[in-house]
Each structure stands twice: as structure tokens, then as C-alpha cells.
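Journal club prep, notes for RB
We'll compare a predicted complex against what the paper describes. Inputs for the adenine case:
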Amino acid sequence: MTATLPSRPTTLAGALELLPKVELHCHVEGAIRPTTVMELAAKNGIALPADDPTELYRYESLNGFLEVFFLVQGVLADQGDWARIAYEAAVDGAAHGMVYRESFFTPARLMAKGQGLGAIIAGLDEGCAAAEAETGVVVNLICDFDREFGPEVALATAEELVALKRAGAPGIERVLGVGYDSIEIGQEPGWYAAAFRTAGAGGLRRTAHQGENSGPDAILACVDLLGAERIDHGMSILEDPDVVSRFVDDRIALTVCPNSNIRIANAFPELAQHVYPAMREAGILATLNTDDPALTDLDLGYEYASAAEAFGYGWDEMVDIALDGVEACWLEDADKAGVRARVADAREALRPDLG
Ligand code: ADE
Ligand code: ZN
């Protein structure tokens, strides 16, 4: 009997949906399904300002978005809730070709309400493990400091993470690094130097949300003062050619989220005007990501397909972008090589037959 080979996709968007993809900038709380937001709010006795949370998902600015993000985070009450959202975020990503993700979680607001960092991580780990067993997708974690809570809370969180690591706490091996997110205006990267230094000395990798609402000087400060190995967003980098050169020379990655920058930051009127192609033409290792898929009605397949269409990229350029995601990830070399081979093999196996 001869096996029938699966037919190749006939559209670029179809092939990009199937292409194995890595995602380095996705917040687990921004990936909570709207139905789950409603169910957890009901379970935990939390009143939401609308029966259907998606009615609230319209943003004029980053700060406007963050108000809704904080509201959504507020429905999480216990370890089981964290496990549920980690599981759902991973299987939803897998449904659009995501094979590996480094996912942010931002615990400060929930820790201020009394939740333990160890329980949050244990819950996230349970959910990731369940999704991994079911779909094969691998998800690691990055603990983000919430700038709204300031540098002292960030330092205390870094110290606790390092202590959990030393103690071999449940799920802590999934936490590869730290970052920071939330408000940018009125903040200075240097305030967080002690928190990032503590995390780095404790063996954690470092990234930082910057350049979404701030200039290239702040992006460079993340590298110089915080030891950031990647920058999340980095939208303003092209304003300073010296900062661009530094990123190109040192292969410092940007985790860019073009559709988020349209829908959340309102930074460009339409995708075709985004600086992403200019970043890549300048030689920057600019990866492609969704940021907060459930709060912006996005998925990684659409992110790739819409970028291809808006920026005029073909299949090979999109596979190159996927490979750049692998290069910028924090997996150990052997695991990285495995993911790289999956993406590289797909170049011919999934090359769309456009007739
Ligand atoms: N938290 C979740 N999404 C964010 C974003 N786009 N910028 C800053 N903080 C965030
Ligand atoms: Zn983000």
C-alpha cells in the first residue's frame, strides 16, 4: 500500500498557519479566553463592568489597555486558575502552529492581594505540563516585574525567585528569566538595576518591555543598565542609528508585536506603516509575536499572515523570520537545534503550492 502524502497548502496564509513557530512575547494573562474571564470572575465572586468582557477590549493607548489588562488579571484567585489559563493559552497557541513559547506572567498585582509566588509558578507549571502532554507544545516562563508597583517590589520578587530556584520549588525550572512590563511613562530603566542584577546573579535571563512608549535612549539603558538580552517591542529604536548599530552588532533581539502596536499602542494607522520591515532591513534580529492575543483578537498564524501581506513578504522571508525567533529564544543549545530543524524542514515540506 502506498502512503498518501499530505498535499501542500495552497495559500501563503494557510502555510503560515501550519509553519512551526516560536513565540517570545506573549502574556499569559493577555491570552485568557473571554469565556474563561467570565467563568473565573463568576467563580471568584468578582464583578466585571460588562457581561461580555470583549466589550471592554477597545484601546486608545497603552495606559488605556493596561486598565483592562489589570481587570482581567484580577479574576485569578488561586493556583488552579493559573493552571487553567496556562493550559488554555498553550493549546490555543498550538492550534495556530506555535511549537515553543516563552510566556510572560506578571504576578505583582496578585501577590499584593496575598497570592504566593511559589503557588502562581506551580499553577502555571501544571497548566503548561498538561498542554505539553496533549499537544507537544513546550512553554517556558518569564516573570515580569510590573513597573506600576515600582523597583522595591521588583527587587523583592527577584530575591524570591532566586530563593525558589535555590530551593528547587515546583515548576521553577520552567522560569527561564525575568523582564518588566506595564507602564513606561514616568519610569526610568535604571531604577530597576538592582532587581535585574539580583535575577542575573541568580542565573535568570533578562529581557525588558521598552520603546513602546519611550525613546531609543531608554531601550539602550535596558541593555547597559539592566543587562537585557532582548527588548520587548523596541518600536522607537530606528530613531537612533547608534542604538541600531549596537543591536545589529551584538545580535540583540527585539520581540516585535506589530498588530499589538496597532491595536494597543495605536502607534500606526495601519499595519503597512509599521516599522517592522525597516527594522529587518537595518539588520536587527526582529522577531514576530502577538503580545496579548485574547485581548486583541489575534493569534500567531494571523500575525504571520498579516505581516506577510502588509509588508510584501513571501514564504522564504517568513521562514527566515520564524528561524530568527528560534535564534533569539533561551532554550539550551540541543533543544534549540531541535526546534530549528523543525522550522528548517518545513521550508520545503510546507512550501505553499500557489499554482
Ligand atoms: N502587559 C501586557 N501587555 C503589555 C504591553 N503591550 N505593554 C506593556 N505591558 C503589557
Ligand atoms: Zn508585552
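Talking point for the session: The pocket of adenine (ligand 1) is lined by residues 27, 30, 62, 69, 181-182, 209, 212, 260, 264, 291-292 (CB under 6 Å).
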